[in-house]
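Morning!

As promised:
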Amino acid sequence: MTTDRELDEILAEIGREHRTMDAPDRLESVLCAATGARKRALGMPGVRLRWALASVVILLAAFAATGIIWQARQNHHSQTQQEGSVPVPKLSPERIPPSTRVTVRQSVEPGSGPARSARRVKASLPRSSQKPTTWNSLDEFVPLPVSEGLPIAAELSVVRIRLRGSDLQQYGLETPADAVAQTMLAEFVVGEDGLPRAIRIVR
Amino acid sequence: MFDWLRRTRQEGELSDAELHRAALAGSGEAMAALYRRHGGLVYRFTLRMSRDAAAAEEITQEVFLALLTQMGRFDAARGTLSTWLCGIARRQLWKYLERNDAAVLSDLDDEGAAELPCLSDGPAELLLRREAVAAVRAGMDELPPMLREVVILCALEEMSYEQAAHVLAVPVGTVRSRLHRAKARLAGLLRGEMANTERKR
């Protein structure tokens, strides 16, 4: 029993000495640096929050812009449909004339208004030879005399243009005297080569 | 940013949990405070067990770095931060011992291990206390790691059996029995030392 008590005393003495030992100070700076490095690696919470908010704002702005653009396009589309509500006539091959080189754009008056729309009409147009037709209809497309000799158009477009009555003469059409000075809205049937094949007066 | 921490630390009011939260938020000062508070225990334990200052330092550093990465595993209901840190240190220590001290580890199970030499079973008079202390110290180093760690925690660090059991991840009864066996060995060694001294006289 004496030895056990002695042992406890000796262990207590060793323990007292043992507990005076402290951890090396240099580790403190190492741990501080490691903590700072971890902080930098993870990033500041505030910075992360700001980035998240910025991302949300950018996404919302993108959605809003997309919505506005879509709405504008819808409005534009509906307006275009209203303006272009004139029925596209069926083009009979017989009415597609031979050709002469005429540029539709040359006949467009600058600042004459937005009245232009195009509609694609796919058709296979066999070549045909017809005598020149005079302009005498507001409802049907009239083949243009100047288009005689043009190749068959595989794809046709309807282009709406505002022009003067006198301009029709350059397409080989006879214009009534009272209509020479008038401005009218006409629709041209234009081939994929950009040359007009037929015309119709809308109003 | 952590001025509040500096102020309150000077007053010694911050708990381990508060310091740890600050450390996780990136406060090196909080980490330093935790190290000053618990680093000594971890370092002493690892140094006594490994008897290698460099290894003890390395393990201590790893233990505190684990504070930043493994803190989710700490359950305050099961024990204090100091015992949790000691537990991590112990696991690191055993890995170190496995790598570097296989001969010692072969003696882990002291049930079959040879008793430390006991030169005399008779009553002894302690003539030179310093020699006795040195003998016990040497005897501790000779103990198998499994017994030595119990002596370090319970006798030198004055941990309770419950705290030691938490560190060692064993039942309290196991701590008691291991400590009893360790002390029996040291007492035998001490008796032998005393007999030797008597014989010399």
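Chain B is about 70% helix and 0% strand.

Hope this helps with the figure draft.
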